[in-house]
């Protein structure tokens, strides 16, 4: 059985057994709504940005043992306004609040009054802070512990703010969930309106949206199932569910458009129209979905929980979106039948975009070499700023400037002698020689950027050295300091490991830089094999991957200019910190590369069909561009709407995802797919379809779709 025959059989099954398919879809929707939403309580993996194989994580594991941690998890800042902490009323209010804080799960709580340390009071004596260290070594358990005791810190007559790593994590979690919910509440109605505009019919518009809603709901069940096999990052649900919705609508758009074309060609055979739709558009959906899933699977190469779980969950959701598009949607198409064009909405007639792209394709194909070189040069120039990127890891800087965690960090830097949360911890193993340990501590204190160094704990042959610093942990200075600390030789026969935000940042960036080539190689290999199997050419897969990288290049150049250099920071409402989070461009690569291959498969499938009609090669390319322009442009527009809500988020990495994906999708759907692909295909000519052993490119023509059998009496 050929793959085309298999898709025809799938389409006929969905059409003839549409009632059973509909019942199964409704049952699954109920199941996903009840059981699947339990995923919100199953995401216990934390953010998971760290590399579990790094030195910083190894040090953290040791600090969870008898040696213990020293750096505070929470810094509670009290601001007395015009009064001072020396005022008996202010002091009594703060001390009563602190004394009432439950100590369950709290390993250490320190104040100015318990330590007598003047560093706990601001220079103007109008503010003071309290440090809290929890007993748990798990970040999400610490977040829950903070939630339990947070209300108790309220002190009348003062403004209370919460900073530190645990507070930052809590604030990011809360704001991200709220922002995603708000984005979905805006995007769903807008998607419905745009689908009506695209199709001009309420019935046609409702079909992709129905499948998209089912996939979005089903994403919860898929994510919860994944949690039984691996820890899933708490941030995965923010991205994966929206991606599933966007892909389902993209695939639905392609399928419904093709079904309407098939109905116009043969109005009397509804089952056949569904079968041919699945055999053509459905086959394209299957190929493109497989490639998007492969892009996500490439993330599993990274050992960090965030990227790895995003890979598992993303691939699973994409496969579910494809399955829904190939089963539920054909059944709905058969239910709709000729009514797919019913409930038309009167809209002003405009020139179809396909005609404009048809003329543009012919224009660039007149001088294909000049067009190809010129477009490639423009895209490379747009990506050039990315060469100067400064990589970072998530910290309180991802929050809005007025968020508690950022305000506390800023206040501690401006008004206090030191920020107690800015510590690098050195764990030394294998020494009981205090003199040698003290000498090593003095050498660490001499490293540029270190403002204080002290042995803060020993246990057997393990020792803990706390190093204070004042620089931005995401700066290049921080990376240099960590490098010099690790290069400082510890006492003979011992091993030193460093942890803390700067060290973790260095380890994460190193991990991503080391694994990205392997991810790209894996995705490239599987993409090549899938596209070769789909189109029988060894040239087309290489061309597709190179052009996809060009569209990513332009998006990444913009990411660096916007988020590191601060372009449009006023419009987007964030304060640039001179760095870009290393995790999220990798995630953008996985999503955007998959979507780019998605659009590439849409276009190449049509080019192959046009070639099979014995059209002139240039005319076949231009005709395919015209036939797919509306679908690709609409799919890109709808995907932009899906992720546009991220731009309004108060979380910086959500905005990075929004800007990166929007630019990558727009550039790919217009410049690359509408101009560069036609120019490159014309430049390659017949060589585009070349494969070893193939004498004629005509062999690349798609197999014929079997005609519908006579209707049974």
Automatic annotation (TrEMBL):
It is a multi-pass membrane protein. Belongs to the resistance-nodulation-cell division (RND) (TC 2.A.6) family. MmpL subfamily. InterPro entries: MMPL_dom (IPR004869), Mycobact_MmpL (IPR050545). It is found in: Cell membrane. Keywords: Cell membrane, Membrane, Transmembrane, Transmembrane helix. Residues 694-713 are annotated as: Disordered. Pfam families: MMPL. Coiled coil: none annotated. Residues 69-369, 460-696 form the Membrane transport protein MMPL domain. The keyword Membrane applies. Residues 703-713 have a biased composition (Pro residues). Signal peptide: none annotated. PANTHER family: MEMBRANE PROTEIN MJ1562-RELATED (PTHR33406), MEMBRANE PROTEIN SCO6666-RELATED (PTHR33406:SF11). This is MMPL family transporter. The chain crosses the membrane at residues 20-40, 190-223, 235-254, 285-306, 312-333, 369-392, 518-539, 546-564, 584-607, 628-647, 653-676.
